[in-house]
Every structure is written in C-alpha cells, then in structure tokens.
Amino acid sequence: xxxxxxxEIMKVIHEFFPEHASIAISNTNEYVYYIPSNKVDLKILPxxxxxxxxATHKALLNGQKVNEFIDSxxxxxxxxxxxxxxxxxxxxxxxxxxxxxxxxxxFLSQYMTIxxxxxxxxxxxxxxxxxxxxxxxxxxxTETQVGFHRLNLSELELFLSSESFIRCHRxxxxxxxxxxxxxxxxxxxxxxxxxxxxxIPVSQRYASFFRRSLGF
Length: 216
Description:
Layout: H1 3-14, E1 22-26, E2 31-35, H2 55-62, E3 66-70, E4 79-88, E5 91-100, H3 106-110, E6 111-116, E7 119-124, E8 128-134, E9 137-142, E10 146-149, H4 153-157, E11 165-169, E12 172-175, E13 179-184, E14 190-194, E15 199-202, H5 204-214
Antiparallel strand pairs: 1-2, 1-5, 3-4, 4-5, 6-7, 8-9, 8-12, 9-10, 11-12, 13-14, 14-15
C-alpha cells in the first residue's frame, strides 16, 4: 500500500476516534503514518523507528492488542496507548495505535451498549459469546440477546480484553470462554464450535496467530 493510500485511509479511521486521540500506523520496524491531536503529541515522524517499551512495540512483540499506560520515560510525555497488530498471511505486518492522554471511560472496558429492536441494553463483556459482521452491520451475540452495535469490529476490538476475546476472521471476534470445541478444517485452518452451537471459521489469515495465542 502506498503512502497516499495510507494517508487517505487513516484520515477516515481517525474520524471514529475521539478528537483528543493521536493515531499512529506502523510496519514491524518503523512508523509510516502519524496524525497528532491537540491533547497529546508524541512528535512521531514517518520513518521513526519503533521504540522498545511503547504500546506499538508491545503489540508487535506479543502479537496481541495492548491497552496500557506508558510513562514519560520514552517520549517525554505520558500517554495511554491502545495498539492492535494487523495480520496478513498469518504474519504480523504492523500495528495501528491510538494515543490518548488518559484511559477511556471504564464503562467501555466492561460494558457494551447494543440495540435490540427499538431499545438499547447494556451488556457486560463477559456475557458476550461472539461478535459478527454481516452486510456492514456489527451483530453482538450474548447469552440471552442478539443486538447491533454502531462500531465495526476493528473499532470494538480496542475496547475488548485480549485475555478474553480473539479475532479469528475478518468477520468474527470470539469470547474464548465460550468456545466449546476447536475442529481442524484443513491443514492450516479451523472451525470453532461455540457453546450455542454456532460454527465459526478461523481464516488462514488468523490461523497462526490463533494457534500461538491459545498455545497449541
């Protein structure tokens, strides 16, 4: 992807984040895009190497989403980093990092508000079985309800605990606690049978990350 395409895409993505969030995108070695906010600015420039101990570095190193406070020892400015690695061909290719002056509302890290018919309901994250994208709509399946959320999966992934939720497909995020069985589907992919009987594919793009995260 060329620089012009990255710039256009990131301008769109930035619209989904609070105005006080800076956004950085990187490959596995250096930053390729950065847009600062008026609240916190790490003075990152395209081409800057990724520093050890940053939220971006930790996401790339562990292959998992990172939500963490980073002290001022690295950039001279303390910040709260929310970084998500992106994967292609089973390998980590880079990360998108939201840089905030403080953690988002604790409500977002524990609850989700979904729409069912014409009403809205709050649901604890640990009651969610999985999230699915269909026809550009995000569907949230819980123990007792099926509802819709206005954000897409990539945006919601920032607020979901990487210890409980895992991205297994471009259209699915699953709660690990509700996986009943992992079945081989080919030499490199899998099918997940959830406790409600739903069968969810693990795509080849996420298969290596999935196996590494669950340790098998």
